[in-house]
Amino acid sequence: MNVALRTTLKSTAAVTAGRTVAKAATARFMATVAEEAEGLSDAAAYCIGLEDKHGAHDYHPLPVVLKEGKGTRLFDVDGKEYFDFLSAYSAVNQGHYHPKIIGALVEQAQKLTLASRAFHNDSLGEYAEFVTSYFGYDRVLPMNTGVEGGETAIKLARRWGYDVKGIP
Question: Model's pTM, two decimal places?
């Protein structure tokens, strides 16, 4: 365990504890991180320390520092092996480093890495035709964030208001 990290986390928790209720919550968080860091290797403690110091505290991850994955298996910075039962909340349910997916990714990236929706591209039409036919939809809007979903819902509601309710 990295002694400097443990000392820094504990002293930060102690200094912060006496200020305000919000600061006390931060102190409890820092103390918890310090306790979790007790059994970590220097490599893991270093990574967690950097993330804690420079990253937003919007999530409280498990004290495991992943380095790589292959299929359903994950490996931490110390080489310890894990089964990936979480699959990044289904974002990688196909497994890590799948050879067919990596091959398709490399093939596409060698042609065109990303095309803004400000332009047409030679694949979107075929994709949209396939998806709408397969699922029986009239149209499809591929998205990668919830923001786009919210924007589209507002636009659809406005369109419905104009067309169905006659709102000017």
Answer: 0.57
